[in-house]
Structure formats: C-alpha cells, structure tokens
Design a protein that fits this description.
Blueprint (H helix, E strand, L loop, with lengths): L10 E2 L5 E2 L3 E2 L1 H10 L29 H15 L5 H14 L3 H12 L18 H6 L16 H28 L12 E3 L25 E3 L2 E3 L2 H9 L3 H8 L4 H10 L6 H19 L1 H8 L6 E3 L19 H20 L1
Helix pairs in contact: 1-2, 3-4, 7-8, 7-9, 7-10, 8-9, 10-11, 10-12
Length: 348
C-alpha cells in the first residue's frame, strides 16, 4: 500500500459494529473513507482505464468508497437475517414478472441501483450473461442499453422476461428435486454443538459429574471381550498392548490417566490401527448399555454434534482446529447415542 497505509482486516457484526484496528459503525466507516484515513484501494496506484464500451465490458465496475460502504451495510443486513440488496432485487424481479407495469419496473430499477455498483454483474448469478437481462429490461424502448449498446426494443424486453421465466422455472424444478432428495431432512435446525471438555478431579469424581460422565476416564466399570475394566480408558489401552503382562498392568491401573500412561509406553499390537475404532465403539457400547444412568446423560444431548476436546488424547480422537483433528471420540459417542435411541424405540 501507499505511504501511511497498511492492510488490515475489517470485521462486521450483526449489530452494526465494525472493527478495523478500532471500533466504528457504518457512518463512521463512511467518514473515515471520505477523509482518507481509511482506503479501499492504494491511492498511489492509478485506477484502471475505463472500458471502451460499457455494454461490451465483461468485468465489474471499479470498487469505490461509496460502493464499499454499501457492501458493508449489505453484509450487516445479511448477518441480521434481513434481505440483502441482491435478494431485494430478485424480489423486485419476481414482482415485475407478475405485474409488468411501469411502476413495478421503476421499483425494479431502484432495487437494482441499490446493489453496490461493483457487485451488480453478480446479482443474477449468471457469469455468462451477467446482469445484461436486467440492464436491457431497465432501458426504455428506443434508448441504447448502457448508452453505447444496442437500442432496446420490445422484443429485447420480452427476451429478458423470457430469461427470468426460464430462471424461475429452473429454480422451481431444483426446489422440487431437492424436496424429494431431502425428504427426510429435519424441519428444524439441530442443537448447537456440545463440547466435551477434559477435566481433573484431584479429590475424586463428584457424585453428579454431568456431561463429564461422557469422558473415557470416567470411572464406569465395563465388561468387554471377556474381561472387566475400571473405565473405557482402561479397556482401550489394555487391549492395545501386544504383551499379556502389559495388558494386565494397564487393566489394574489406579486411574484412567495412569492406564493411558502405561498403555502409551507399552508395545502396541500390530493390527491396532485396523481395529482400534471397532474396539472403542465396542467399549462405548458396553459403557452406556451397562450403565443406564449414563445412557440417559448421553441421550439428553439430543442431536447435538459432540466435540471431544482435551490435551491428553491424540488428534485422531479429539476435535482440534486444524486438519489433524478427526474427533473420532465425538463421532463414536454420536453413533452410540443413535444406537441407544434405536433400542429405546424398538422396546416401546
């Protein structure tokens, strides 16, 4: 950037707050751009030359401070759940299709011009024709489209209307196909994601541990594969060991964390990468079927996505904010929850 300018992120919030090194609002943004304190382009780089023909131009109009303010305002509308300028433009198109009168065409013109100028070529979502059908429709018959394009005729207006009719039909067909394909999609959004945090209780687990009961080191004895384990953690690491003596030491560890420590140091059985998911799934199934009170805790999470976090488990099992995090523990808990619910439904 030019002298005195540097690149920075601009963050917009639904309540209209804007941050970019400091806090402001939409009016404040406009003033900062007007005074030159903030800029949307490098002032030392000359703007690109205007196209020789607006009608033949295949790229958007240049970004201006005014257009940027409109775009940010549009983003605030979107974050607030209100229609954007593009959506309002489409609403005006639909209205004109139903009532092709001069008043509705003027409403359409106002809606189109409310779209930031540098974004108008994208408003129809058609990168072949871009916004040309709209520009044709909004040009009076006998006038040149864009001032240097073809002279608008009644046939061209009808062609634009036919274009929008085809688009409407395509959208309707797509919605009908989607309704069939997504016939079993829930009508309401699911619950927010549930995060299962790791925790430590130096004085022992409380009687009411709540969602911490979902953790693998929670002391819920399980019977699995012909043996007994003090927790899922004990069972998983014991079954991972190649040597029988290691398996016994891990099984008899005083706590889940100690079982993890011993298991991590023991030699792993050669097929462990292939069977570990099945073993963990079996241990979780045993835990929640053998302890109905824990099953109720898991079922109470509904259809929430379960994010299993912590620092003791590998990224294979936990949810971490990068490509390494597989969240297999969270996914297996969700699977176990579905199995428990299926069992309930079959028994009622």
């Amino acid at each position: 950037m030019g002298r005195g300018y540097y690149l920075d992120d601009l963050t917009v919030f639904a309540d209209g707050l804007i941050t970019c090194g400091e806090r402001t609002d939409l009016d404040g943004l406009a003033k900062k751009l007007e005074t030159g304190r903030w800029a949307v382009t490098d002032p030392e780089i000359p703007p690109p030359p205007a196209p020789p023909s607006k009608w033949e131009a295949r790229y958007s109009e240049p970004l201006t401070p005014e257009g940027f303010v409109l775009e940010v305002g549009d983003r605030i509308e979107e974050l607030s759940g209100r229609p954007t300028a593009g959506q309002r433009c489409w609403d005006a198109i639909r209205q004109y299709e139903q009532q092709p009168t001069e008043p509705t065409r003027e409403l359409l013109r106002a809606a189109y011009l409310a779209v930031p100028a540098h974004l108008r070529v994208y408003v129809l979502g058609d990168m072949d024709l871009q916004d040309r059908p709209l520009r044709i429709l909004l040009t009076d018959i006998g006038e040149a489209v864009d001032g240097d394009g073809p002279v608008a005729t009644a046939e061209m207006h009808q062609g634009a209307l036919d274009y929008f009719a085809r688009v409407s039909k395509a959208v309707q067909d797509q919605q009908e196909r989607q309704a069939v394909r997504y016939a079993d999609d829930p009508a309401e959004r699911g619950r927010p994601a549930l995060v299962s945090h790791a925790t430590v209780y130096p004085q022992g687990w409380p009687d009411e541990a709540g969602l911490f009961m979902l953790r693998n080191d929670y002391p819920a004895p399980v019977e699995f594969a012909g043996d007994s384990y003090a927790s899922v953690q004990h069972g998983y690491w014991a079954l991972s060991a190649a040597d029988a003596s290691d398996r016994s030491r891990i099984r008899d560890a005083a706590s889940g964390s100690e079982a993890h420590e011993l298991g991590g140091r023991a030699a792993r059985r050669s097929d462990w990468p292939d069977v570990r998911l099945a073993v963990m799934a079996g241990l979780l199934r045993a835990k929640f079927t053998q302890h109905p009170e824990l099953a109720q805790v898991l079922l109470a999470t509904g259809d929430a996505r379960i994010s299993y976090t912590g620092f003791e488990d590998s990224p294979f099992w936990r949810d971490v904010p990068d490509d390494r995090g597989r969240n297999w523990m969270g996914r297996l808990l969700e699977l176990t929850r579905s199995e428990l619910l299926a069992q309930q439904l079959l028994l009622t």
